[in-house]
Amino acid sequence: MVSCRDMIRAIRACKTAAEERAVVRKECAAIRAAVSENDQDYRHRNLAKLMFIHMLGYPTHFGQMECLKLIASSGFPEKRIGYLGLMLLLDERQEVLMLVTNSLKQDLNHSNQYIVGLALCALGNICSAEMARDLAPEVERLLQNSNPNIRKKAALCSIRIIRKVPDLAENFMKPAGAFLGEKHHGVLITGVQLCMDLCKASSEALEYLRKHTKDLVRVLKNVITSGYTPEYDISGITDPFLQIRVLRLLRILGQGDADASDVMSDILAQVATSTESNKNAGNAILYECVETIMSIEATGGLRVLAINILGRFLSNRDNNIRYVALNMLMKAITVDGQAVQRHRTTILECVKDSDASIRKRALELLFLLVNDSNVKPLTKELIEYLEVCDPEFKGDLSAKICSIVEKFSPDKLWYIDQMLKVLSEAGNFVKDEVWHALIVVISNATDLQGYTVRSLYKAFQTSSNQETLVRVAVWCIGEYGDLLVNNIGELDGEEPLTVTESDAVDVLEAALKRPSFDITTRAMALVALLKLSSRFPPCSKRIKDIIIQQKGSLVLELQQRSIEFSSVIHKHENIKSTLVERMPVLDEAAFVGKRAVSSAATLSSEKSNRKSSSGIPLNLPNGVSKPAAAPLVDLLDLSSDNAPTPSASTGDFLHDLLGVDLMQNSPIQGMSQPTTTGTDVLLDLLSIGTPPVQNNSSPKLPSSPQVKILPQLSPLGVASPKLSNTSGSVKATIQDTKPTSNAPPVIDLLGDLGSNSSMAEENVPEYPSIVGFQSSSLKIMFSFSKQPGQPQVTHVQATFTNLSSNEYTHFIFQAAVPKFVMLRLDPASGNVLPANGGSITQHLTLDNKQHRQKALAMRIRVAYKVDNQDMLEQGQVNNFPPGL
Amino acid sequence: MGIRFILLVNKQGQTRLAQYYEYLTLEERRALEGEIVRKCLARTEQQCSFVEHRTYKVVYRRYASLFFLVGVDNDENELAILEFIHLLVETMDRHFGNVCELDIMFHLEKAHFMLEEMVMNGYIVETNKSNILAPIHLMDKAS
To answer: Which residues belong to any copy of the AP complex mu/sigma subunit domain (chain B) (predicted)?
Structure first.
C-alpha cells in the first residue's frame, strides 16, 4: 500500500476530475480492505489518507469506526490522529458517536494534560446533547484544573455544553465569573467567551456577571497599559483579540443597564482615544469599541467620540475600513439619525464604488436615510447612477429606487417621471409588481395621462429594448392613443410633439414583432391594436392586416387572440366601439390594499392560526344538542355567532372532521373574527388566491338550507384529497338525515378514522384536539381517537402546518415517550410543507401501559430545511387530554 | 458561535484544508465551497476582503497562491477575523518556515492540529504562537 504522501502526489498529478476520482476510488478500496482485515499497523496512516479524501469531498463513512479504535488505543500519536478523524469525519448526528462517550470519559480523567486537552477539544467540537449531559461533571471539574491549557479548553467545552443543554448553564456561572480574575490570556479569552454565552443562555447569569463588570474593566485596563509583550503583540498592540472579546462582553453587560454602562465608560473612552488607528489591529478594536458605545447606555460625549471615529473610518481609503464603517452606521442610525445624515454624500459615493460588497452595504444604508426632505436629490443621484452602473447591480438598485419612489413621492407627476426613468434604464430588471403599480397610478391620474403617454412614446424611441417600459407604453398607447396624437392635456413647459396615428401604430407593431419579447408583451400589443382600430379609423385597415398576420403565429395565445380580434373587426363592427372603450379607472385603494394583504398574508394567517389554535375547542361551532343535521349547518357556517355548546359524543365527529383539516379552516375563523364584514375579507383573500382558503370558502356561503350544502361540499372533497374521506361521510350524513338517528352518521364518520361499527354502543369517550407544539414557524395539532375495547391505545393524527412564508423540505418529525408508553409512527403524508399554511399529516399510535395511572407526555423534535438551511425545533407536549 | 468554517483554497480553486464548525452534508459542503471560491477568486486586490454569501459573511485574504477564507456570523468583527487569518499564517510560518501550499497539503494533520489549538467549536482558544505550537513540537520530538 502506498504512503499518504504518495497518494497525495498521485492526486496532485491528476489532470482531470475523472482521473482524480479513479485514484480516490482505488485508495478507498484499499483502505476498506485494510479496515475489514482489522489491520493495526496502518490504521493511523489510513485515517490520514481518509482525511485528505474527505477534504476533497468524497464519502468516507467507512472510516468512522477506525477513529474510535484509534481513540481507544493507548499511544498518544494514535489518539491524536483518532480524535482529529473523529472531529472531521463524524458529526453529532451519527449514532456511532455515542460509542465514544466512554473513551472520552476516560481521557478526560487522564493524567497527561495533552490527552485531556484532546478529549476536551473533541467534546467541545462535536458533542451531542446526551454526551453533554453525561460528561458535564467532568468538564466542570476540569474548569478548576491547575493547568491553564486545560482550563481554557474546558471553558470552550462548557460553551458547547450550555448550547446543547441550556439547563446546565447555572452550574457554569460561578467558574466563569472566577475566570475573569485570571492572568493567562488563553484562559481570559475563553472565559470571556463563556461569559458571553452564559449571558445569552440565562438572564440569571447575566445579572450575576454584571457584578463582575469591574473585573472586566480591570482586565482591559491591564492589557492596554501593559508594556510590550512579544508573544501577544500584533503591530504594536497587545492582544487585540482579547481586547475585542472583552469589549464585546462589556456590550452585553452594559446593554440596558445604566450602572454597568457607567462603570465601563471611562475605559471605553480610553480605548476610543488612545488606540492607534493606522493598523488593521487597532481599527478592529476601535470598530468593536464604537459598537459597544452605541449599544450601551452611554453619555452624549462618548457617543460623539464614537460617531467621529466612524466619520474617520468612512473617509478612509482602505475599502475594508469603509465597509465596516457602513456596517456600523447602519446600527448607529437608530441611535443618532442626524449624525448619520451628515455623512449622506459620502455614503452616496460608496453606492457608486467599484466593489460590490461596499455598494450593497451603502445602498442598504442609504435606503434607511431617505426621508421626505431629501428624496428628490437622492433619487436623482441614484437614477443617474443607474444609467452607468454594472448590469448585475441594476436589479438591486432599481428595486431600491422603486421602493423609495413609491414610499416618498410627493406628487404623481414626479412619481411617473421617476418611474419612467427607471424603466427606461433598467426595465428588464424590475418586478411585475412595479409596472402594475405604475399603470394603476396612470389610470387614476386623469390630468396626466396625455403627458404620460407622450413621455412613454418618447422613451420608447430610445429604450425600446426594456421590456417592462414597452409594456407600459403599449398599454398606455392602447388606452390613450388619442391623447397622444392630438396633444391633449399638455402640461406647462412640455415639449411639443408631433405624432401621427401611424407612428403610434408603428410602436405597437414593433412591440408585437420583436422576437425577444415574451407572450405577455406581444399579447398586450394585440389588445392595444384592437383598441386603436376604433380610435384611429384611418389606420384601421393597416391594423386589421397586422392582426391577421398573427393568425399564423406559432404561439397559441397570439393565434387565438388574432382570430378572435379579427372576427370582432369583421363581424361585429356595431359593438366594437363599446367593446374597446377605455378601461374604467382602476381602483387604486383596492390595488394597494391587495398588495398589502398579499405581503401581510403570511403575517395575518399566522396570527389567525394562533388565535384559533388557542380557542379551537371553544370555537367549534356545533349546536350538537339539536338534531343531527343542524351541527353540519353550523359547522359549515363558520361565522355563526352561536355560542358553542360543549359537545356530547355526537358532536365529536365534528371535532374529528375539523381536527383532520383544522389548519385549512382556521384562517377563515380567525379572519372573520376581527371584522364584521367577514365576506369582504374573504373575497380579498380569495383574490390573492391562497388555495386552502378557497377550498373552504364554499361552505361559508350557504348558511341555512342544508340541501345546498351537498353540491357545495363535493368540490371541496375533490379540491383537497385529505378532506375527501370526511366529506364523503358528510354526504352520507345528509342523505341519512333523520332527526332520530344520531348514531349512524357517527359510525360513518368515525369509520373513516379507523373505528368499527360496534363502537356506537360502547360509547367510547372522545377527546378534544390539542395544539401539541407551536412556534413562530410551525404548528403541530394532535387529534385523538380510540378503538373500542382498547382503552389504553390512542390513535393520534398529527397535523403539521407551516406558518412561515418559506417552503420546508426534508421534513422529519420524531417523538419520544416515557418508558410506560409504546409509540408507533406511521409514515407521514409527505415531507414537504408548502409556504403559508401548507400542511402534512402523520398517524401515531400510542399504547399507554399504565392507562389511567399515568398521563401521557411526549418530547418532540422536528427537523426540516428552509432554503437548504437545516432547521431544528423541539419541544415537550404535556397538554394531552386527561385519560388517554 | 463566531467562526463557522475555515477554508484554504489555492488559485485554481482546489480545497487544501477545510474545517467546519457546523454540520453540513458532503454535497452542501461541495456546493458551498464552489460558490464561495468562485465569488472570492473573482475579486480584485483593491476590493474589500468581505463577501456576503447566504447567511455567512466570508472574510478572506490571499497569501501567494493560497486563499484563506473564513466564514463567520453576520455580527462578527470582520477586521478581527482578518487579523486572525494573519495570525494563523504566522503560526504556520513559524512551524514550517516560510509556509507554502505543499507544506499544508503534505502535513494536513499538522495544519489541523494547529488550527485545533487556535479555534474550537468556532471560538478562539489561544493567540499566543508559542502556546499554540507547544504540543506539536512536543510530538515532533517524540516521534
So the answer is: 3-142
Query: Is A80 close to B26, i.e. CB distance below 8 A?
Result: no
CB A23 within 8 A of CB A13: no
pLDDT digits (tens, 9 = 90+) for A720-761: 334 334 444 434 333 443 444 444 444 444 434 443 444 444
Inter-CA distances, A425 with A18, A346, A349, A494, A584, Å: 46, 24, 20, 21, 30
Residue bearing the bigger pLDDT, A186 or A93:
A186
In this prediction, residue A604 carries a pLDDT of 45
Task: Give the domain extent around B31.
Answer: 3-142
* pLDDT for residue A879 is more than 90: no
Lowest-confidence segment of A57-66, A113-122, A557-566, A785-794 by average pLDDT: A785-794
Q: For the ranges A395-409, A518-532, A724-738, which has the lowest average pLDDT?
A: A724-738
What pairing do the DSSP bridges indicate for beta strands A858-866 and A869-877?
A: antiparallel
**What pLDDT score does A265 carry?**
93
Contact criterion met (CB < 8 Å) for B135 and A355: no
The angle at the Cα of A621, spanning A618 to A627, to the nearest 5 degrees, equals 130
The helix/strand/coil state of A460 is helix
* Inter-chain residue contact A288 with B80, CB threshold 8 Å: yes
Q: What pLDDT does A827 receive? A: 82
Residue in chain B closest to A83 (alpha carbons) equals: B113
Euclidean distance between CA atoms A237 and A243, whole angstroms? 10
Q: Mean pLDDT for chain A?
A: 79
Which of chain A's residues have a Cβ under 8 Å away from the Cβ of B124? 189-190, 193, 241, 245
Please write the tens of the pLDDT for every residue from A410-462.
888 999 999 999 999 888 888 888 888 899 889 888 888 889 999 999 999 98
Looking at residue B11, which CATH number applies to its domain?
A: 3.30.450.60
Residue A149 CA, chain-centre distance (Å), reads 41
Contact B128 A153 (CB under 8 A): no
C-alpha triplet B72, B78, B79: angle, nearest 5°: 145
Domain boundaries along the sequence of chain A: 212-298, 603-758, 767-884
CATH architecture of A767-884: Sandwich (2.60)
Q: How far is A824 from chain B (nearest CA, A)?
A: 29
Angle at B91 between CA B86 and CA B97, to 5 degrees: 110
| Cell numbers linked to A153 | 479548553
Interface test with B, best of A55, A196, A318, A396 (most B CBs within 10 A): A55
Total domains in chain B come to 1
Mean pLDDT along residues A377-397: 85
**pLDDT exceeds cutoff 50 at A550:** yes
- Tell me the shortest Cα–Cα distance from B51 to chain A, in angstroms: 6
Rg (CA), chain A: 36
A566 within 8 A of A545, measured Cβ to Cβ? no
Place of cell 465596516: A324
pLDDT in tens, A487-503: 887 887 778 888 888 88
* A92/B23 Cβ within 8 A: yes
* Residue A307 DSSP code: H
Radius of gyration of chain B (CA): 15
Contact assessment for residue A579 and residue A568, using Cβ atoms and an 8 Å cutoff: yes
Question: In a mutagenesis test of the B interface, which of A357, A358, A392, A865 is the best target, namely the one with the most B β-carbons within 10 Å?
Answer: A357
